[in-house]
Amino acid sequence: MLRRLTRREGLAMAGAGLLAGGAAPDHAPLDVLARRKGLRFGTALGAEGLADRGYLALVARECGALVAENEHKLYALKPGAPDEWRWAGADRIAAFAADRGMFLRGHTLLWNRDEFAPDWLKRQGLGSQAEGERWLTAHVRTVIGRYPQIRSWDVVNETIDPATGAMRDTVFTRAMGADAVEIAFRAAHEAAPQARLAYNDYMGWGPSDAKHRAGVLRLLERLKARGVPIHTFGVQGHIPNGDAGNVVVFSQADQREWRAFVDEVRGLGLDLVITQLDVNDTVLPADPTRRDAIAAGLVRDFLDLMLDYRELKQVLVWGLSDRHSWLQTWWPRPDRLPKRPTPYDAELRPKAMRAAIADALRGAPERTPWT
Ligand code: 9MR
Q1: What is the pTM of this model?
Q2: pLDDT tens for residues 12-47?
Q3: Rounded Cα gap, residues 277 and 236, in angstroms
Q4: Of 357, 365, 292, 294, nearest to 322 (Cα)?
Q5: In the structure, which protein residues have their CB atom closer than 6 angstroms to any atom of ligand 1?
Q6: Angle at alpha carbon of residue 33, lines to 31 and 38, rounded to 5°
Q7: How far, CA to CA in Å, does 239 sit from each of 126, 247, 280, 310, 328?
Q8: What's the gap in Å between 115 CA and the centre of ligand 1?
Q9: CATH 3.20.20.80: does it fit domain 7-18+25-362?
């Protein structure tokens, strides 16, 4: 069902200079706007983006933080065999960030899902608890040791099963049980005592994600109660999350639920990072202007809520341009039109979402930055 633009969507478009007579856009880079409020703004960067000079120039202009989209994942570092390391992709991203003085995040040391574990590991397993612990500790040490410039790690990613709220059953938990998570955090802290260590997940705000949120909260509470070195909660921010595929507004009821969840996390003393922001527009209207306006409205409402928390220190998008978004191939639109999940279109022109992010950052309260 199509609907009229809300006032907020209209404002987002005016901010982007998309409406006739709209206010002239302020072209201050997003990271500059973020820094004024004690935040950083950044993006994920992958192999495709690294090979695209125009895109890299845009990333360098807009961003002060960077994360490798896939290059630190176990399946990327050790695709074929236990003793073979492939560092080239991750090294290139680290060099790009270092050359430009960007804050580099690492994603991820323990992606606790069998779908994303290399086949050789699933075939051979990790053996006993002690063997599993030795393997995981060595892995964490080696990856962290190679990238001392990384100051914030997604140590553990997506370990909660959204359907049940329980820990997923994986090659790691089959050896170490739920201790796998704790072992990863302790090893990471030993290897990088100054780094900010995060648990990262994609739980959404809708009613169908209630079990996911509750499970994540239970995990965080247990880790804190056991004195595990965890400092940050990574909210992925893939909108809409979960199975609520037809979301076009962040309703007041959903905002209340979401705030209650984030309040609990804050109560545990964790900082917050939005680690993977984008909008899945599979079921949004075909017309690009309308589609962009709805996506921008969702981003604006989500950011306004999250930026209210002074604990939120960084906002990273999962791709800066529609040219390089995982959502082009995941969940294609029924009409097969190209997707528009990010702040810049495929020709690297700013969209309403870029203006929404800029406006949200301009309106954000100041906070103490990460050093
Ligand atoms: O964007 C990533 C895509 O290129 C990969 O094929 C996929 C599997 O490794 O992972 C995507 O990134 C995911 C991230 O690592 C964790 N949260 C969800 C992201 C989107 O699926």
Answers
A1: 0.93
A2: 444 444 443 344 456 899 999 999 999 999 999 999
A3: 6
A4: 292
A5: 69-70, 73, 116, 157, 202, 236, 276, 326
A6: 85
A7: 35, 8, 6, 22, 15
A8: 11
A9: yes
